[in-house]
Amino acid sequence: MQKKIAVVILNFNGEKWLEKFLPSVCLHSPQAEVVVADNASTDASLDFVRKNFQKVVLIALEKNYGFAEGYNQALEKIKGNFEYYLLLNSDVEVSPNWLVPILEKLDQNKNYAALQPKILAYHQPDTFEHAGAAGGFIDTWGFPFCRGRIFETVEKDQQQYDDTRPLFWASGAAMAIRSELFHRLGGFDGDFFAHMEEIDLCWRLQNAGFQIGYVPQSCVFHVGGGTLAYQNPRKTYLNFRNNLLMLIKNLPAKNLFFKIFFRMVLDGIAGIHFGFQFKFQHVFQIIKAHFYLYQNFRKILEKRKTTQKIAPARKLETIYPKSIVWAFFVKGKKTFSKLNF
Questions:
Q1: Measured between alpha carbons, how far is 126 from 188 in angstroms, rounded to an integer?
Q2: Alpha-carbon gap, residue 20 to 69, rounded angstroms
Q3: Whole-model pTM above 0.85?
């Protein structure tokens, strides 16, 4: 019997994560075809999967495409075979029956384009994990945050976010998405390489009229930083660059210039903050991200035109209408529940 969902794990030199977590994925995902897509790893990942997991579908990509384009390439190879994809990081442990409530929600509500489970920290399982927690949002200036995690403040899970309100974005660490919509909207933006590509895609899905959902009955445990450490300067570059790309592509034309200009001013303030912490590599990465914007401005505008043709920008209620920076650092609202949003 053909399975309607594929759990797709994108791997790059993650043999240790596959050895640790792939058994739980295979054991607890009987409803799914498990797929490992390898981004031309130089470790023994491919041999490990071939030797120990004969039932796992293995896709060997010819080079390291990064997270965004790597998934695009892999999913193109299984296009048309599954109704849903579940994109799962290699450093995630899943729990028994984790797919059941996700499948039920996708089957019962066609307006949900993408869903995420509750994401807890593998090493602190009573605490939300940084990359997703209980679902993602952005503020009016494009800063992302989560229910359960604002900036570096992470909350303990006390079932305070066990409702199923619509999200702005579902975490790429564990994202279920309708395959037809993934391909119709062009998948991830390959130019992002890694970081925020899932937020960009979720924004396009909402502009196309769909919702992003959260399934608290499903729970996974994420190590986090398993592929690129949170304090890595390369991550700083990708986050700042990709955030600006995402805003230019998806914001309504009204106030677009002003929002981009003010956001870049805020980036400058962040750079000064890094400077005071003597994190000069991070300062350089922010400058580098802005220069990417200047050097590729025409290309980015063309990208915006294409995006707007497929999913024209609209006003979204899932965007926090104020500044999360102001709320967090000035007003002292350190948790999502205090935002009154």
A1: 31
A2: 25
A3: yes
